[in-house]
Amino acid sequence: MKLTSAFVVLAALSGAFAAPTTEFYANSKVQRDLGLQKIPLTRPTNYVPNIQKAIAKAIAKYDRRSFRSGGGRANATAETYDDAWITPVSIGTPPQVVKLDFDTGSSDLWVFSTEISPASDSAGHNLFDPSKSSTFANLDGYTWEIGYGDGSGASGDVGTDTVNIGGAIVKTQAIELAQSVSVEFVNDTSTDGLLGLAFDNINEVDPVKQKTFPTRLAEEGTLPSGSQLFTTAFYSQRDAEQSFWTFGYIDQDLVQASGEALRWTPVNPSRGFWEVPLTRVTVNGKATSVSGYTGVVDSGTTLLLVPEAFRDAWYKAIPGSGYDTDPDSGHISWWFPNSALDSLPEFKIELGGTLWTVQPENFIYDSRDANTTYGSLQSIDGHQAILGDVFLKSVYAVWDTENKRIGLVPKIQKKQNLQPTSTGPPP
Ligand SMILES: *[C@@H]1O[C@H](CO)[C@@H](O)[C@H](O)[C@H]1NC(C)=O
Ligand SMILES: *[C@@H]1O[C@H](CO)[C@@H](O)[C@H](O)[C@H]1NC(C)=O
Ligand SMILES: *[C@@H]1O[C@H](CO)[C@@H](O)[C@H](O)[C@H]1NC(C)=O
Predict the structure, then answer these.
(1) Ligand 3, residues 338, 368, 371, 422: which to mutate, most atoms within 8 A of Cβ?
(2) Which residue windows are coiled coil (predicted)?
(3) Does 69 map to a domain?
(4) Catalytic one of 82, 101, 103, 108
(5) For residue range 64-91, what is the model confidence (pLDDT) as tens digits?
(6) Domain limits at 170?
(7) Number of structural domains found in the chain
């Protein structure tokens, strides 16, 4: 990505002039008027941590987006092992409830439907049945296909219907109905489809790209100017707190708890992502800088995948750390000794002119053996880093679709749970 100097100046200014805004108070009125609610999240119970698969999944997702045209969302095989944010969503009249994976790294809303063939592929899933919804309208001749090129993926036809998420209602939302799904999606009964929250230009519907749920909330006038945003509060399974999303309003309790005002970072949506300039990290206060890099903020990626220089700065501050090489892909997975768990180096990443701390417990991905632990901080080739859930769990994030910017305050747990895990869902 080319950064114009105006963009860089804007990035610097936005950090300097962070302050509570009138919108902030206006959108709590919108919350009351529309009766908007927090949307609780659950995690899949069938998650098997696998550092190689987690890295491969993220790389496949962005390889496709950045360097290929068409094709699918991700390698569906690896997808099965994703750490997803699953949320109940009501579609149609009367409402039919499906469990969707909310993904800020893609822009399609697709769902397991009664059109799936063979019907046995839908076993264990909630299905959307368009014939039972009085508000469903078919989009004649429209199709979609999400696949990785190895035959795995999903495809189908398209219609529009009402969608209600926590009281935020779109009347005419494009719903991509699955008619065919690969075995990986069939087997993953924890989710019935996906809800994309990236920008409209990477939607996969033919012949005309369709708009995302946040875009339609704005276009239909459900959310007024100043409230065209959604927010994410993600917590580790190590913590007791309930993770949630909001649409249309900012949770003031979390902002106040941080003791700070939201600070904004401008987003460049030209490649379809929540993509921000990435310039600098500090490890134990010592800076490492890169130029020409961006970071995609992505709820659909588990790990924090950074330039090698950033990764090296952190692991080299941990005596006894090392890496394994996957013989098939050549990807490497860094680990550190368990003796370092209580004294992991402090890691801060700069966004919008502010350094954001990534809390220590989020660096623990999974046990490697009795004495070592795989880190959730790994690297990615190319100039596009991925700021996944490891980053998002340390902040409360406001995704401002109207002004194309992300607002953050810190959200660091008072008590850090630093036990390495070996089974069950990742932190
Ligand atoms: C994609 O899936 C295939 C199996 O269908 C697997 O062999 C391959 O390693 C996967 N690739 C990536 C990048 O995850
Ligand atoms: C899907 O589930 C079936 C039945 O449990 C199993 O035999 C098959 O190996 C699974 N396939 C994948 C790709 O997970
Ligand atoms: C872990 O460390 C202990 C003590 O040094 C050693 O005996 C054991 O073999 C190590 N285990 C592994 C899997 O490396």
Answers:
(1) 371
(2) none
(3) yes
(4) 103
(5) 543 222 222 222 222 222 355 678 899 9
(6) 39-219
(7) 1
